[in-house]
Amino acid sequence: MVGIVLVSHSSKIAEGIIELCSQMAPDYDKLINCSGIEDGLIGTDTLKIVEGIKEADDGDGVIIIMDIGSSIISTEMALDFLDEDLRSRTLLVDTPIVEGALNASIDASIGGDLQSVKEACEGAKSLNKF
Amino acid sequence: MKSTELLLLLKDISNTIIDNSEMLNDLDRAIGDADHGINMRRGFLLVLEDLDNLTDKDIVTIFNKVAMTLLSKIGGASGPLYATAFMKFAQVCKGRDEIDSNLYTEMIGSAIDGMKMRGKSDAGCKTILDSMIPYYKTLETEIKKTNVFKELSPLALKSSEEGVEYTKTIIATKGRRKLPW
């Protein structure tokens, strides 16, 4: 099953997203929170992201959804710490973090492959709310 | 410079950053979210702790340890950027137990390359590179005339200060400048 890593500046934001996604896809447990830095402070931590990617991957690959600013550079740097194999099945997706995570977790929970989950996730970017 | 002197230098650098963290916050307040000093202070306070445990370690180990601490603890974009510089220092110093002016010049050049790549940036984007690149260029030119660091350093420093002044004349394209708010 494809894993999803959330990289927000705030761990609480990601906790809330995971809570929301688990209502939509209750059996999906591959949504990993790599947000914030230690002591619950705001920020992003490359090494935490590296660990989260490893945790999220069961061989089917991982997509990563980020919020703003340093979440992107920290995630890009995290890729440099992965072995080639895992890196080749880890994708960064440019999408709104809440809607993207919802779309992705629903698609992943029904067995979507890496490309399918990525596209579902990316689809949130062009979603019209009204 | 051997590893014992390097530890003292890094201690000095850390303390300078910590002591000036309020100034870094103020600078960031003008262009961002006023947390650059808080972030750098947090990172370099932990670097200070590392340094106490790095006595007797070689140069490469020291640079790598500092890199990993900054990478994980700063929390902002400066974490990966400073960590990249320190990782490049470690790469360039591999197999060496002393830093001389030539190796130092090579280290700065390599750090610049790494930071350009990591930050997807270059000269003229109103970043730290606009001070580092002139610093490096002067080192590269002047080292052909002298390899005495005490003679090289003031010249390179002057170039980097001119680089800082130059940034006042250009428009930022990186970082928060890109965001719509």
SSE pattern of chain B = HHHHHHHH
Low-pLDDT runs of chain A: none
Shape of chain A: globular
CATH architecture of the largest domain in chain B: Alpha Horseshoe
Estimated share of beta-strand residues of chain A:
5-15%
Question: Helix segment count of chain B?
Answer: 8
Give the overall form of chain B: globular
C-alpha Rg of chain B (nearest Å): 16 Å
* Main β-sheet, spatial strand arrangement of chain A: 2-1-3-4
| Helix run count of chain A | 6
Helix content of chain A: 40-55%
- Average pLDDT of chain B: 94
Give the helix/strand layout.
The complex is a heterodimer of chains A (130) and B (181).
Chain A: E1 3-7, H1 11-24, E2 31-33, H2 46-56, E3 62-66, H3 70-79, H4 84-88, E4 90-93, H5 97-109, H6 114-123
Parallel strand pairs in A: 1-2, 1-3, 3-4
Helix pairs in contact in A: 1-5, 2-3, 5-6
Chain B: H1 3-19, H2 21-31, H3 36-52, H4 59-73, H5 78-93, H6 101-119, H7 129-142, H8 149-167
Briefly characterize the structure.
The complex is a heterodimer of chains A (130) and B (181). Chain A has 130 residues and is of the alpha/beta class.
What does this protein structure show overall?
The complex is a heterodimer of chains A (130) and B (181). Helices cover 48% and strands 13% of the residues of chain A. By secondary structure, chain A is of the alpha/beta class. Chain A has one domain (3-126): 3-Layer(aba) Sandwich (Rossmann fold), CATH 3.40.50.510. Chain B has two domains: 1-99, Serine Threonine Protein Phosphatase 5, Tetratricopeptide repeat; 103-175, no CATH class. Chain B is 71% helix and 0% strand. Chain B starts with a helix and ends in a 14-residue tail after the last helix. The mean pLDDT of chain B is 94. Classes of the chains: A alpha/beta (130), B mainly alpha (181).
